[in-house]
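Hi everyone,

Forwarding the result from last night's run.
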Amino acid sequence: MYVIERVIDAACALDYPRQLLDIQVLDDSTDETRVIADNAVGRWRSLGVDITLIHRADRGGFKAGALENGLRTAKGEFVAIFDADFVPGADFLQRTIHYFSDPKVGMVQARWEHLNREYSFLTRAQAIFLDGHFMLESYTRSVSGRFFNFNGTAGVLRRATIEDAGGWEHDTLTEDLDLSYRAQMKGWKFIFLPDVTVPSELPVEINSFKAQQCRWAKGAMQTCRKTLPRMLRGDFNPAEKLEAWYHLTGNVSYPLMVILTLLLFPAMIVRYNQGWFELVTIDLPLFVLSFSSVTTFYLTSQRILSKKWHRQILYLPGLMALGIGMMISGTKVVLEGALGIRSPFVRTPKYSVEGNSGDWKAKKYRGRVSVLALIEIAFGLYFCFAVYYALALGIYGVVPFLFLFLWGFMYMGILSLTQGFKGISLGEPLLRLLDFARLRFTHSETGYEIPKLNQH
């Protein structure tokens, strides 16, 4: 209800011949969102725009079901899709449609930008996560001829591609990933455009963020189970098969990380008793390699996108801690996806928060608090003991590594409880600490005077 009018206004303002535009508002809402959408549609229809509100009382198939239902009455040869929190620029179609002059092109994907990137530590971390996904994963897969996926929004699909691939199917939570693989296995070419961006709103509440990440992880595992065997048996080159394997099985890292987490403490004790030689020759190289791979991945994307990429270095520990904190929820949904356990589509609440300000705590909608938050806190306490034990034995070298796990689990668990019950946000003090550190970093680099922080 907070973002629907914004996206309708943006869609109706697209710079494209009006007689060639057929705008559908696919609405499955069960609250006052329908009234807001209906009023916005009526306002634009009175101005001569061909726009229709399609409301479903039966939410069967969730997003995929809504897209399938809309396609039945859609008039166009091409279909541009925007989630409710996206705000396409007026030139979006002008910058994307000409790629379809190649009859083999079935989809063009734009890069996501973010309306509230600077809002909090959580949104900044998410933005870096997504920058890495688009600039390192989607872009390199696209230019190297590997399979990559339509991201469900901010893209244009050829209608014939959707139909040739079998249409929108709703047996996974990631209908976009599922359709993408089915279409590319049919021979359709997908294109990623890093310079065409569409701003969107990132989740500002931790439980909403977790719900979104879990939906993506479970949907990817469902798609893996459904599609990967056909891909591996198909007549595709080894490079395509290998990349598809890495792409679709990537979330298996969640349960593997849980195993690693449980083994860290006993491994630390064993290594301590064995002496420093094994620590220097085995543990340290493994730590450096794993740490450098993650930092290189995200810093490369930041270097491509921003001249001030070095400022993001300070967020990397928090970024890794946030990924660690997702481990418990991620493991649950990945195992469910692998075992074929079904679950409903959980939407991600958005509050029309833009820039670095805006209050959402008193607004309607809230991500569900799960019992997994208590397990995350329990893991955090486990690492409190591990850190204490390391300090007591004088194993100071492993403390920063252990603290990443401690911070990640406690941040995720405690914030899930406090924000889920409309408590205070723990993200603001952390964000201010990082901002202060970033100012210090800028000062040491340029010689500029550090701006005075206000009392708050």
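Residues 311 and 438 are 7 Å apart (CA to CA).

Cheers,
N.
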